[in-house]
Amino acid sequence: xxxxxxxxxxxxxxxxxxxxxxxxxxxxxxxxxxxxxxxxxxxxxxxxxxxxxxxxxxxxxxxxxxxxxxxxxxxxxxxxxxxxxxxxxxxxxxxxxxxxxxxxxxxxxxxxxxxxxxxxxxxxxxxxxxxxxxxxxxxxxxxxxxxxxxxxxxxxxxxxxxxxxxxxxxxxxxxxxxxxxxxxxxxxxxxxxxxxxxxxxxxxxxxxxxxxxxxxxxxxxxxxxxxxxxxxxxxxxxxxxxxxxxxxxxxxxxxxxxxxxxxxxxxxxxxxxxxxxxxxxxx
Length: 283
Ligand SMILES: [Fe+2]
Ligand SMILES: [Fe+2]
Hints:
six-stranded mixed sheet, alpha/beta
């Protein structure tokens, strides 16, 4: 059995207790003796102010794999963010035991001129986010040998909500069709979700800090903080995958305080929890 911890969207720059939250996550990973940790992106702005935090994560004694999130490249070129995170490539594959794990980079935009990595500083009208053609071809080659694979990405590969999930979902589905993909996990949506498409479950990990709400006019913006740093432990076995989540609460404002009585926001569920579930291998 392979066990790993997954968290995302800590947004250190938005919280006052971000380092405590990270400490809680890293301590949990050590207690559970996981094989590795995955950060699903939007960890912190890649500036000197947070360099010690990345040092702490990368030096925690457990292998850590970073995913690029849109806030990691909000104002910075991808090369800068990769160096900051101590990461070699924006997308990559690694193997643990009999399994392959793939980290995609979904922070791309497309215009008539082609496909480009975030940021889109000139705010050129574009289609985004997406997995660019070159990366899809690479993914197809990776999956060709039929090895059991888990895929991580910052943006959802299936969320249909406007500009939340990738814009080229069909192309991605084609790359995965008939391959041995056991699970896809993403962050970015700051809430929970689970969808099956064909034989593949797509699980959205909620945020380790908050979700950001804004009113229809964009005049009021609030961060609604989850009390605990939401994250999950995944146990990967031949016949099933167990995702062990956690229950929490809101630390201040609650969804009903900002007019979200159904706890649905951007296509996901913003109850203060990371959903637990058992995913049986389809017959
Ligand atoms: Fe985020
Ligand atoms: Fe994001």
